[in-house]
Amino acid sequence: MIGVRRQTEIYVSGVSGRRPLIPFDADRLEAAAQRRMRPAAFAYVAAGAGNERTVAANRGLRPVANRPADAA
Fold first, then answer.
1. Which CA distances in Å does 68 have to 1, 2, 35, 43?
2. For 15-58, what is the HEC assignment?
3. Is residue 71 included in any domain, yes or no?
4. pLDDT band at 2 (very low <50, low <70, confident <90, very high)
5. Terminal alpha carbon distance of the chain
6. Burial state string for 20-53 with b = 16 or more CB within 10 A and e = fewer than 16
7. What pLDDT score does 29 carry?
8. 8, part of any domain
9. What is the pTM of this model?
10. How many domains are contained in the chain?
11. pLDDT tens digits for 14-48?
């Protein structure tokens, strides 16, 4: 139930024009992480923590609009 409440808070905030504290745009999120992390830790994460396949896959994700669960 906590997840549903949190999701509702995020949705209501968004439609009310409030911006999230944590950016959802991958480039902005990466820039924010780089400002807050130690250089070695950021380099490890930014490089995909190994083989970079996850980074490449995540860059290809697109936001999905809310729709009914039965819509396919």
1. 19, 20, 38, 40
2. HCCCCCCCCCCHHHHHHHHHHHCCHHHHHHHHCCCCCCHHHHHH
3. no
4. confident
5. 24
6. eeeeeeeeeeeeeeeeeeeeeeeeeeeeeeeeee
7. 82
8. no
9. 0.44
10. 1
11. 889 888 777 677 788 888 899 999 999 998 887 77
**Residue 47 domain-assigned (yes or no):** yes
Q: Identify whether the C-beta of residue 70 lies closer than 8 Å to the C-beta of residue 58.
A: no
CB 42 within 8 A of CB 34: yes
Range 10-14 average pLDDT: 87
Which domain, by its residues, includes 46? 23-62
Q: Is residue 9 part of a domain?
A: no
CA dihedral sign of residues 47, 51, 55, 56:
positive
